[in-house]
Amino acid sequence: MDFLKIIILLFCLSFIMPSSLFTKEGIDFETAFELWQNKLYFLAHRKFEEILTSFAPDADKERSYFYSAMSSFNLKLYSRSIAEFRRLLLNFPDSYFKEKAKYYIALAYYHGKKYVLAIQNFREFNKEFDDSELNITGHYYIGKSYFAMDYMDSALREFLQIIQKYKENPLIPEIEFEVGRVYFFNKQYEKSLDQFQRIKERYPFYRTKDEINMWMAECYKNLKKGSEAMDVYRLIYDRTSWPSLKKTALFNIAILYYNKNDFEESKKLFLEFLEKYSSDLELLDDCYYYLAKIFYQNKEYSLTVKYLDLLIKDFPSSPLQGNAYFLYGEISYEKKEYQEALEYFNKALDSTMSCKDMVLKIISDIYIKMAYYSEAQEALLKIIDTTSPTESLKASSYYNLANIYLRQEKMDRAIEYYERVYKDHSKEKIAVFAAFKLGEIYFQQEDYSRARELFSFILENQKDKAIRTKAYFYLARISYKEKHYEQSLLYCDYVIKDTEEELDIPEVLWIKSQCLLYLEDRLESSQILRLLIRKYPSSHQALQAMEKLIDEAAREEEYRFILDNLESITKYHKLSEEHKQKALKILRENGK
């Protein structure tokens, strides 16, 4: 009976005694909170969690839920902090910390790079707490989320709305700065430049002038305003106390001299950069690469290789690895060490190098030089089928494929690829050469109508004198074969007037003489034949001209010309038996 009374008494006392008597010894909110204030977040989190598993008062539990989540947030455990903030809201829907909890949930999504969820949660926060002091930062992080996802137009719209709505807020200079960055990364460099200039004028104590100047210098550089960029970089380099800005400024000054082709000054500055910052890996691989390129320009190949070796060895993960192998390949290519060049260019292909289509183009050129046409064909097809080449590169690849098929006597395939260049890439320079090749093929196939169309296209689209003259030559031959003698004469005169090569002149003179003959200008025709014999006696056309004159000789003057020039012709050619007999007859009749 006494035992039962004791149990009842203890049960009643449990309702009137403080709950703190039932918590674990030494665990109280103030201790945990002190750890949190001292930024010992790991230990603080553990203490807050212990309070939550104890019989602590609701007020302590509510605060522990919040600061436990904040500890996780400050430890950058963003997923865990989100779960813990949501736990607070579940257990205390009307918590004093409700506003901050929802804000930090959105912020945790932002820092966790879950930008869509960050935008969604910040928008919900701004709608629910539209009069909150945190509202502007909510909009700010919505803009930053769009920026991080590369939705520049949406980011700009969000930032500009903040500026319009919260004109006097202390955060506005930061928003203005973000607007300048948006313009910059959206490649609106003029607007970006104006924005940063405005920040310098309106907010002279916001950030530092050197940091704003760096953005302005970058704008000038991207606007190809080298002298303005140089002035600002020099200003930063001479006066800034920030080592990182000083370093970046020096590097960019060297780059600008390189872009001006002032390789000596650029080399001097890059070597100064190495001397001052070789212990800092940032930009060091770029510095090695540019020094290698400068020495390559100067044909100092041993020094080129020295810096390429440093780049390859010290920066195995650098995006410039492919460029380095490409430069190795170029050195071997210039030395005509084609097999070694191929090895380097293939290494460049295996890297993260961006211009792989250009590497394939060079590989195909090497295979063509080595007469490895199947391998060249494979490389050219890769350019077309597996990369995204420029129009110019695609056109040249089609053209080289056509040349290979022509060499292999696969005429239909050659015509197909020349046609692709001529029709699909008519604005590219190489289209004229494709048209010329096609014209030659159709001429040989006696498709004169098609050939004439192509050579006429060349005359309309090419100003180069040499190729125009060759087009006139073919048009003269076509017109002659089609019996358009007057037109052929006109083209012949163009060739004779413009050509600097005498290989085609004998045939042109022959065609001209025959056109004149058909037009019944026998005297002029005879004069052309004589010119051909005197000036080009070794040509096949000179033999034709002599035989023509022998056939038609009827006057003493003609006999005399034949006799005076017969020896020079027979020095190079054998007359046909018929013409030999006719020549002997002329000799006898003239006492020779």
Model description:
By secondary structure, the protein is an all-alpha fold. The chain has a domain at 373-449. It is 77% helix and 0% strand. The chain contains 32 helices and no strands. Helix 6 (98-111) packs antiparallel against helix 7 (115-128) and helix 20 (356-369) packs antiparallel against helix 21 (373-386). The termini are far apart. 39% of the residues are buried.
Please render the helix and strand layout as text:
Layout (H helix, E strand, L loop, with lengths): L1 H15 L12 H9 L3 H12 L5 H17 L3 H14 L6 H14 L3 H14 L6 H14 L3 H14 L6 H14 L3 H14 L6 H14 L3 H14 L3 H17 L3 H15 L6 H14 L3 H14 L6 H14 L3 H13 L5 H14 L3 H14 L4 H17 L3 H14 L5 H15 L3 H14 L3 H17 L3 H14 L6 H14 L3 H14 L4 H13 L3 H15 L6 H13 L3
Helix pairs in contact: 2-3, 3-4, 4-5, 5-6, 6-7, 7-8, 8-9, 9-10, 10-11, 11-12, 12-13, 13-14, 14-15, 15-16, 16-17, 16-18, 17-18, 18-19, 19-20, 20-21, 21-22, 22-23, 23-24, 24-25, 24-26, 25-26, 26-27, 27-28, 28-29, 28-30, 29-30, 30-31
